[in-house]
Every structure is written in structure tokens, then in C-alpha cells.
From TrEMBL:
GO biological process: fatty acid alpha-oxidation
Enzymatic reactions: 3-methylhexadecanoyl-CoA + 2-oxoglutarate + O2 = 2-hydroxy-3-methylhexadecanoyl-CoA + succinate + CO2; octanoyl-CoA + 2-oxoglutarate + O2 = 2-hydroxyoctanoyl-CoA + succinate + CO2; 3-methylundecanoyl-CoA + 2-oxoglutarate + O2 = 2-hydroxy-3-methylundecanoyl-CoA + succinate + CO2; 3-methylnonanoyl-CoA + 2-oxoglutarate + O2 = 2-hydroxy-3-methylnonanoyl-CoA + succinate + CO2
GO cellular component, one term: peroxisome
Protein family per UniProt: Belongs to the PhyH family.
Entry protein name: Phytanoyl-CoA dioxygenase, peroxisomal
UniProt keywords, alphabetically: Dioxygenase, Iron, Metal-binding, Oxidoreductase, Vitamin C
Cofactor(s) in the UniProt record: L-ascorbate; Fe cation; ATP
Length: 304
């Protein structure tokens, strides 16, 4: 990372991270390679995310899994991008999936997953201008809530801004260090304006925990841990806040049964959605829905 970019993008200095208290053998979330500096490894260990700058370009997106804002969906039909909040699972689109295979991305992903890398979840995010109901917010959550595979430390998200992202258009908000906790119980928050489908939030977290708004330039990328508590604010502008992301996991990861856990609610919701959309029966498990989406991008597919 260029020193000036790292100074601009990093938020660790605001929390007085004491690098001299850490030693390589204590770093559990990253691998010792020649890509990340010791300071960058400590930043990820302490906070749960890390910036890197890449070059990316805007892409025309075919309608794959289209998600709409709940308030727009309930009002008169609006054509075009104003109705769309996300396009999920673009792994079948060769042009968009190129993002997941970029060497500039994968060389950093490997620091967190190891050499056998699966692309597990892809999204093109199009946060629309808020309708006045505050539904363009994304509740504070942990991505691991959605994933029936482990270990968490071998999963990482790469999230790239496709245009300037700032507080006014709803940048990411993170709770640094929260990735060192456990997976919390999630459900739909009781918001007056309503909540978008699948937008579960952490039920209980410390509202006094220091938070950081990740303001990013076009092409900036943040890598973050799946237990990091994060969300995003309202888009209070007239434009759209576009980003592209991919969740990666080591192919050495393994699937777990979420029945009887805090993840059972999202597991049932995903199965119900798959049943309606694709006509699959109850024999298809939550784990199966993920196994079908995963794509090997580097190394060997050993387990997932």
C-alpha cells in the first residue's frame, strides 16, 4: 500500500493502536506473507478491516437476483435503477465475475484465506436515494450470520467503492475490534419505515462502542472479517451509492448445521426463498444453497 494512501484510508490511529504490544506469533487472522506489512496485519487484527486501492470500472449489470427497497416496492412501480438496491449472486456473469478473480484483489485475499480460495457470495450494491422512510439504512450486522461454513477466520469480504462513498450517501459504518467477539443473535430490527428483505441486524450490541465511517474514493477497497459488526446509513443524496463486493473463503472451510443455532432463522428464510424462486423441495439444505453458488478462484477445491 502506498504510504500516503494508507495514512488517508486507515482509521487505526484514531484508536491509539499500540503496535509494539503485538508479535507475529499472536496474529491469528492473517498469514505471514510478503504482501501485508506488519502494521497492516496488526490493523486488521485490531479492527477487523483493511484498505487497499485498486482500479475498477463500472459495468452494465444483467438482472440476476434483483432486490428492491421495501418502500419503493410497496409504492407505485418505478422503472430502472431507482427501484433496485442490490443484484446478488452474479457469479454466472463472466464480466462481473472478473472482479472476483482480479490478481490485485486475490493477492490480498490470500493473506486472510490461505492459497485455496473460493468466491462464495457476490453482490452489486446500488443504495438508492432514501424515500424518506430511512429504509436505505442497513442495520448493524455480522456477515457470518448468513454463512453456514467455518472457521470464521478464513472468511473475508472484499468491498470496492464504484464511486465516491461518504457519510451523506450512506458509507459503511464499522465497530473496530468487534470481530474479536462471537456471532450475535440477529433478526429484523423494529424500524418504523420497515426493513428490506434479508436485512437482519444484531439484536444487542454496545451502542457506545467506538464507530468509524469508512469514507472511500472510487476504486478503494476494504477487506473485513465476517464477525466485524458493520452497517450503513441513509443515502441522503439524489444519486446512487454503488459498490461491488465478494465474500471469499478458504476451500478448506467446512459446512455446519445451523439448526438450533442463532442462524436458524436466516437458514429457513433462504430455503423458503429458494423454494419459491427455483421450485426446490425441502431436501435442499441451507448449506446446499451455498455450495451451489461457490466458485473456485485460486488453488484447489478441497472441502467447500
Amino acid at each position: 500500500v502506498e504510504p500516503e494512501l494508507y495514512r488517508r484510508a486507515s482509521f487505526t490511529s484514531a484508536y491509539n493502536v499500540s503496535y509494539h504490544h503485538h508479535h507475529p506469533q499472536n496474529l491469528q487472522y492473517t498469514f505471514d506473507t510478503d504482501v501485508l506489512t506488519q502494521e497492516q496485519r496488526v490493523a486488521y487484527e485490531e479492527n477487523g478491516d483493511e484498505f487497499e486501492h485498486i482500479c475498477t470500472r463500472k459495468a452494465n449489470v444483467p438482472g440476476l437476483v434483483v432486490m428492491k427497497d421495501v418502500t419503493i416496492a410497496k409504492s407505485e412501480f418505478v422503472e430502472g435503477e431507482k427501484a433496485v438496491t442490490k443484484l446478488q449472486d452474479f457469479q454466472e456473469d463472466p464480466e462481473l465475475f472478473r472482479y472476483c478473480t482480479l490478481p490485485q484483489i486475490l493477492k490480498y485475499v490470500e493473506c486472510f484465506t490461505g492459497p485455496n480460495i473460493m468466491a462464495m457470495h457476490t453482490m452489486l450494491i446500488n443504495k438508492p436515494p432514501d424515500t424518506g422512510k430511512k429504509t436505505s439504512r442497513h442495520p448493524m450486522h455480522q456477515d457470518l450470520h448468513y454463512f453456514p461454513f467455518r472457521p470464521a477466520d478464513r472468511i473475508v469480504c472484499s468491498w470496492t467503492a464504484m464511486e465516491k462513498v461518504h457519510r451523506e450517501n450512506g458509507c459503511l459504518v464499522v465497530l473496530p475490534g468487534s470481530h474479536r467477539g462471537t456471532l450475535q443473535e440477529h433478526d429484523y430490527p423494529e424500524w418504523e419505515g420497515g426493513v428490506n428483505k434479508m436485512y437482519h441486524g444484531v439484536r444487542n450490541y454496545d451502542p457506545g462502542h467506538p464507530r468509524v465511517h469508512l469514507e472511500m474514493e472510487k476504486g478503494d477497497t476494504v477487506f473485513f472479517h465476517p464477525l466485524l459488526i458493520h452497517g450503513s446509513g441513509m443515502n441522503q443524496t439524489e444519486g446512487f451509492r454503488k459498490a461491488i463486493s465478494c465474500h471469499y473463503a478458504s476451500s478448506d472451510c467446512y459446512y455446519i448445521d445451523v439448526k438450533g443455532t442463532t442462524q436458524e432463522n436466516i437458514g429457513n428464510e433462504v430455503k423458503e426463498l429458494a423454494s419459491r424462486k427455483y421450485g426446490v423441495d425441502d431436501t435442499v439444505s441451507f448449506q446446499d444453497t451455498w455450495a451451489l453458488r461457490g466458485r473456485l478462484v485460486k488453488g484447489d477445491r478441497t472441502s467447500l
